[in-house]
Structure formats: C-alpha cells, structure tokens
Design brief:
Length: 260
C-alpha cells in the first residue's frame, strides 16, 4: 500500500509538471502567433504608404513631358528616391533583426576618431531636420578615440538622433553630449519632444513596440531593439528618461575598447 501511495504521488507530480509544461508551450505559441500577426500587419502597413506614393509618382512621371514639365518630373523623381530609401532602410532593419537572432552578426573592431562618426551622423541628421529644428553637438572631441565596431556605433547613435528629430516638433533643439572617461564613452541625446507615456516606458525596447503617441509618425518599433542588442553584445548599454509632452533623454554607454 505504501508503495502504491508513493507511486500515485509520483504520478500526480508528473502529471502536474507535464500540465504546466503544456500550458507554458501553449502560451509561448500564443505569444509567437501574436508576434507574427503584429509583424505582418506592420509590414503591410509600413510598406503600403510608400509603395502607393511610388506608384502614384511613377504614373504621373510618364505623363509629364521632358521639355515643359521638368520641375514636376524632378519632384516626382525625388519622391520616388526618398521612398525607396525609406523602404530600403526598413528592409535593412528586418535583415539586422534576422542576423542578430540567428547569431550571424560579426563585429569588426578598428581604432577610430569619434569625431568622424559624429560628423557623419550629424550630416545625415541635418537632412531630416524639421522646420526650425537644430542639433547642438560637441565640436571639441578630436581627442576621443575608440576601438570599437565603427559601423555599429554610427548606426546606434544615428538611430537615437533620428528618433529625437522624428518625435520632436518644429523649432526645437536636440542636444548631443559626449563624454569619455578611462573605460567608457557616454552619449546623451536630449530632445524636447513628445516624450514617452509612463505606461509605455517598460516596453520601449521590445521589438515592434510603438508608444501610442508615436503612431502619427512612420516607424516600425525595431530600431531601439536592434540598438540595445548591439550595444549589449559590445559590452555597453542603453537607458532613457522621459516625460510625456516634455521630452526624452537617451543615453548610450560603450566601452572604449572591446570587452575580452
Ligand atoms: P520607431 O521609431 O520605428 O517606431 P524605435 O524602436 O526607434 O522604433 O522606437 C520605439 C518606440 O519608442 C517609438 O515608436 C516611440 O514610441 C518611442 N521613442 C523612441 N525614441 C523616442 C523619442 N526620442 N521620443 C519619444 N518617443 C520615442
């Protein structure tokens, strides 16, 4: 009888464990399905608007004659180019996610002057500024040297700066601060834009997540997720503080030399 009792107890425990495993698996599958649906709706939505624009412009383009309507043609060519660039950048983000997930990312460490990266980021950002927007950045950083994956640092910084521009209204200033100490370099991107609602702050680095107040601007909710993964892979980190309708400060920290 004791043996039978022990056996029944063991059996009960096993059933309990298996039920929990099954429940977890079902929940994971549900989460995966939700993520898949979110992804598909994001892709269709994000691609549809630029594609419609490209289609319209290319149809109109063929209607204007080269001799008399050059200006209109140029405008439509510019629209097409911009939208193709945008689609290309989204595709690159998707490819990065895939690479990061499958562990196919490799980093190439070189020693470089940070001013080179900052100049490149500011040059590109200047083209995206809204009416009356301005970026302040440190110009005396010639002695800041990093041994890091240059492309990844540039991608991360430009992501933060582009977000600051995108989520801030016209006539605002974005401040970029950079400090280096013995071991690490700290970048701060400060904006006085729409900010992130308190309830959304915990999800901001989740893939495809976009805060409610951000939905008026284009975006995929992928950028910060990629940046965070890259920075952590390189031994760095990313943090933010934000207040809705006041602004946000994103801080990224990166070791001056690769971690062992
Ligand atoms: P995307 O900008 O394409 O939506 P990101 O991953 O770069 O994706 O950002 C995720 C979300 O974080 C954004 O949708 C937005 O809600 C919020 N966010 C990021 N940066 C800022 C910022 N500077 N100000 C306000 N909200 C921001």
């Amino acid at each position: 009888i004791t043996e039978l009792k022990n056996y029944t107890q063991r059996l009960e425990k096993t059933v309990e464990e298996r039920t929990k495993q099954l429940k977890d698996a079902l929940e994971t599958e549900k989460e995966l399905n939700e993520l898949k649906t979110k992804f598909l709706s994001l892709v269709s939505h994000e691609f549809k608007t630029p594609l419609t624009g490209i289609l319209t412009s290319s149809m109109l383009l063929s209607k204007y004659t080269l001799e008399t309507q050059q200006e209109k043609r140029d405008k439509h060519i510019e629209t097409i180019t911009n939208k193709v660039h945008y689609l290309n950048s989204i595709l690159n983000d998707f490819l990065s996610v895939e690479k990061l997930e499958t562990g196919k990312v490799t980093y190439k460490f070189t020693t470089f002057k940070l001013s080179k990266v900052v100049n490149e980021v500011i040059y590109n950002a200047n083209m995206l500024l809204k009416e009356g927007q301005k970026i302040n950045y440190p110009e005396n950083i010639d002695d800041i040297i990093l041994t890091q994956d240059e492309k990844t640092i540039e991608l991360s910084l430009s992501n933060l700066v582009h977000n600051a521009i995108k989520y801030s209204p016209e006539k605002t200033t974005i401040q970029l601060n950079i400090h280096q100490d013995q071991t690490q370099t700290v970048f701060e991107v400060i904006d006085s834009g729409i900010g992130i609602p308190k309830k959304d702050q915990k999800n901001i680095f989740n893939r495809y997540f976009r805060a409610e107040n951000a939905l008026l601007s284009q975006g995929t909710g992928i950028g910060l997720n990629i940046v965070k993964t890259h920075l952590e892979n390189l031994g760095g980190s990313i943090h933010f503080i934000s207040q809705e309708q006041k602004g946000s400060t994103f801080t990224m920290i990166i070791p001056n030399t690769p971690n062992q």
